[in-house]
Amino acid sequence: MRISSLLSIAATLPLVWLAEKPASALPTMIRLGYPNCSSCHISPQGGGLLNLYGRGIDRAQSLIGGEYAPLENPFIGFLNAEGRITQDIRTVLQQQDVSTDSKRGTQVFRSRFLYRNATELGKRFRFTATLTGENTNALRPALLYEPPTNSAQLFVNTALLSYRARPSLEFSIGRDQLPTGVNIADLSTFVRSRNRLGYYDAPTQAKLFWWGKRYLVTPYLFGPGGNERSGQHESGGGMLAELDVFGKGRTVVGMNLLRGTAGLSDRTLIGPYARLGFGRWGVLAEHDVTDRTLKTGTSASFLQSASYGQVFWAAREWLVPSFIVERLRVDRPYQERLDAAKIELSARLSSQVTISAGPRIQRDELTGRISRSVVFQVAIKTVH
To answer: SS3 for 69?
Structure first.
């Protein structure tokens, strides 16, 4: 890792003692009996801004600990429209060093800045938006059968109008990422990067969230986001459904089903998943199987499967090491055989600052090539 990059991160910390993982939920909360995201997040899909209860949990689980208390500041009250607006600014600073057999290593320093806003429009309506700027893009893999969406230095990740019909029933329409079973923060994992769940994938959609103590059902329809490549403007629909098997908030199993069609290709996805918690440790698992059909000349169909498994342990409420394994298999004519493993250590120093670091190794079974990387990340957010 370059000394200059580390110094630039260190120099930033005193100025932004203001974060967490980049705009993502914490599925590891399953170990404490939180079966879904609706308890702590404003959006029942998870990720994004925390509600008042979630901010209290966020602080209590940090190294600093204690109780959350909103800032009693007239200027903050004015900016938040006396509680009708929830908003924050966050930055994610990441240093990544990558090396591959027989090739020189590469180093990337990425900084990303996000403005997030949730504005209550009366008793039941809410508008949610996320605007992001960055110094360098983070495209998902450029595959022969599916190129990534176009990037932008200033990108609208979320622009949603939501209607909360009942405390456990919400309708949303607008632009957002599609629902997913295990809300993993790392968008480069196989289950996300190979299934149109990259950083710039924000399709237009209409979705419903219906949940109870033991279940969550999310049917959705979606269309192009506008930044797809030619022939890749996908439309379709799907449903995510999950159940807390034993009713204790710690044994959630579910299924994600999706059917999408575009000018050059179609896909059908079946994705079982599980989130399991056992006191201080837990397991997250997802296995997506995608049947793809290309419409170029003679139609060609092939299967793609992506697996993700994570075992995590809360050594302290604020300190969580994880061991992660991944597996990718793609059939001919676009054959891929990739296996990966990663160790990650995440430390929540306060409700404003989280750091994480860890090595990752990936092996290509077809070529025997081994890739190694190390990622160090600091995430910082305002809390008021």
So the answer is: coil
Q: How far apart are CA 252 and CA 239, in angstroms?
A: 16
Q: Is the dihedral of CA 313, 277, 346, 316 positive or negative?
A: negative
Q: Is the peptide bond before 141 cis (omega within 30 degrees of 0)?
A: no
CA 223 to chain centre: 20
Total residue count of the chain as it appears in this document: 384
Question: Which pair of tokens denotes residue 325?
Answer: 């394994």
Distances (CA, A) of 130 to 23, 75, 136, 142, 152: 9, 22, 18, 25, 14
Domain count along the chain? 1
List Cβ neighbours of 122 (8 Å cut-off, separation of 6 or more): none
Structure tokens at 37: 């995201």
25, part of any domain: yes
pLDDT tens string 270-322: 999 999 999 899 999 999 999 999 988 766 899 999 999 999 999 998 999 99
| Domain assignment present for 186 | no
pLDDT beyond 70 at 3: no
Question: Number of H helices and number of E strands within the chain?
Answer: 4, 16
Task: Report the C-alpha gap between 97 and 89 in whole angstroms.
Answer: 27
CA distances from 269 to 176, 183, 272 (A): 19, 17, 10
Confirm if 41 and 49 have CB atoms less than 8 A apart: yes
DSSP state of 74: H
Is residue 188 in some structural domain? no
Q: What is the CATH number of the domain that holds 311?
A: 2.40.160
163 domain-assigned: no
Q: Which amino acid is at 377?
A: Q
Range of the domain at 104: 3-111+227-381
User: Cβ distance 349 to 64 under 8 Å?
Assistant: yes
Contacts of 355 (CB under 8 A, 6+ apart): 346, 347, 349, 376, 377, 378, 379
Is 8 strand, coil or helix?
A: helix
pTM, 2 dp: 0.88
* 8 Å CB contact between 281 and 295: no
What mean pLDDT do residues 236-251 have?
Answer: 94
